[in-house]
Design brief:
Layout (H helix, E strand, L loop, with lengths): L13 H8 L9 H30 L6 H24 L11 H34 L9 H20 L23 H35 L6 H37 L7 H26 L1 H20 L32 H6 L1
Helix pairs in contact: 2-3, 2-8, 2-9, 3-4, 3-8, 4-5, 4-6, 4-7, 6-7, 7-8, 8-9
Length: about 350
């Protein structure tokens, strides 16, 4: 048993804990409940589809088969998981909250906590990877695939553990005086710990990227313009700018919500945290949709791969039809047919030179 079922409050419904903290809960549908569902569902669908596109692009394009891109793919997996978590949250919020059991309520919170932890730890891993790689004068890390896989597995193990911490006893079911307002079954001490831990991680990542930028800029100024190194430096700087945009978007989207949790954990009665709770949640949800957009805007290869994936079914249909729209089946002969490179149906990446020549 993950829950302490010996205390008296354990048998109460979820509504009991909401009423205990003063957070409004009602079985009647209100206007903003419909608004949350109408806005949340399309965003969740877009988050899931866009991050699936990122993962597929990294898998099929051999130019992305490096540790940094594997970690970016894992970041997309965390965003995909966040989209699924928000999807679950949309159908378990508002008047539906009253019908939840205590276990279901904790599952809802654990999914959100896991997605945030996976994203934060993954961004920390990317920051360390970039710091180690650039300070050893390399463009890509020399980490083996086995180490990358072990790192990704570790990230998700940490995420699962942090998501399950409240269910393992750090909650207020048996101590109603310590219940917070935003999440009425969570202990205020847990919210303070959770918010400070993530804000500290944000500060560390910003410091690491600032150090990297200062180093790269100084090295770029010291190098002679007649060597071929500046072009390589531009690639490093471009990749660093992309990662900084991802980090910046993450900090902007999640910091308000973490501040709200911190204020609630510190029992700030004058802060009116419930007034801003929904807005902070929507802002945090949008972060999982921003990253695929940043990839497409900053990385030409990623954008090209997106187009090839999305146009693949249409290209195959066009190849099987003649100019008049009549469908032609390939003629089976003893010798294999020779494929035209411009009409290939494979999703394997082509080099930049072949793209330019075509």
């Amino acid at each position: 048993m993950l829950f302490n079922s010996t205390c008296e409050a354990y048998g109460n419904p979820v509504a009991f804990f909401y009423n205990n903290t003063g957070k409004a809960i009602t079985p009647a549908w209100r206007t903003h409940d419909y608004f949350v569902i109408a806005l949340g569902l399309p965003i969740c669908v877009c988050i899931i589809l866009s991050n699936m596109l990122v993962i597929v692009a990294i898998i099929i394009n051999r130019q992305f088969h490096f540790p940094i891109y594997y970690l970016l793919g894992n970041m997309a997996a965390a965003d995909l998981f966040a989209g699924i978590s928000y999807f679950y949250l949309v159908f378990h919020t508002g008047p539906w909250t009253i019908e939840l059991s205590i276990q279901q309520w904790f599952v809802r919170g654990a999914l959100i906590n896991m997605s945030l932890t996976a994203s934060v730890v993954n961004l920390l891993a990317v920051a360390v990877e970039r710091h180690q790689t650039i300070f050893t004068m390399q463009l890509h890390s020399t980490m083996t695939r086995r180490r990358v896989v072990m790192l990704i597995v570790t990230i998700w193990l940490v995420a699962v553990f942090m998501g399950l911490v409240p269910t393992m006893g750090w909650n207020c079911i048996c101590d109603l005086s310590s219940c917070c307002t935003v999440a009425p079954l969570y202990s205020r001490s847990f919210l303070v710990f959770w918010a400070i831990l993530n804000l500290l991680a944000f500060f560390i990542m910003v410091a690491v990227y600032t150090h990297i930028f200062i180093y790269v800029r100084r090295r770029n100024q010291q190098m002679s313009p007649h060597t071929d190194q500046p072009s390589n430096n531009q690639t490093v700087i471009s990749l660093m700018k992309t990662m900084s945009m991802i980090l910046g978007a993450f900090v902007i989207c999640w910091t308000p919500g973490l501040v709200i949790l911190l204020l609630d954990g510190l029992s700030c009665t004058a802060c009116d945290v419930l007034k801003y709770e929904k807005y902070c949640l929507v802002l945090a949800e949008c972060n999982s949709l921003v990253n695929p957009i940043i990839y497409s805007l900053r990385d030409t290869d990623m954008r090209t791969t997106y187009k090839r994936i999305l146009c693949f079914p249409w290209r195959r249909m066009r190849q099987r039809e003649g100019p008049s729209g009549i469908r032609f089946e390939p003629v089976k002969t003893g010798a294999p047919l020779e494929k035209n490179s411009n009409n290939s149906t494979t999703l394997e990446p082509v080099s930049s030179q072949s793209l330019l020549s075509s």
